[in-house]
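I hope you will forgive my troubling you with a question about protein structure. Could you please explain, in whatever detail you think fit, how the structure tokens follow from the sequence? Thank you for your consideration; the sequence and its tokens are set out here.
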Amino acid sequence: MVPVLARLRSFLASRPSRSQAREHSRQHNIFEAAATYVTAAIEDDDDRLDEAAGWVAPEALMFGINELACRAVTELARERNEPVEVVARRLLGLPRAERAGSN
């Protein structure tokens, strides 16, 4: 996930103004942009990354990516019959969380 965010930051720094981004003939919603952006990052497709990042405002794209991550972790947790936190931490390579008050 870190490479995705690094790419997003570098793209946003060189992004054209919002008026130029609105010139696209077809409007895309934030979830479509997020799904395309994340897929392009996984596939290492820089052209598609740039295209998807230009579909919506940067804040909207970040919201969409966050929502996609939340839904993905929730679905994996359901499929695995595990707590959401366990799945999220495992995906990120983190150790199990210590619960407050447990010894």
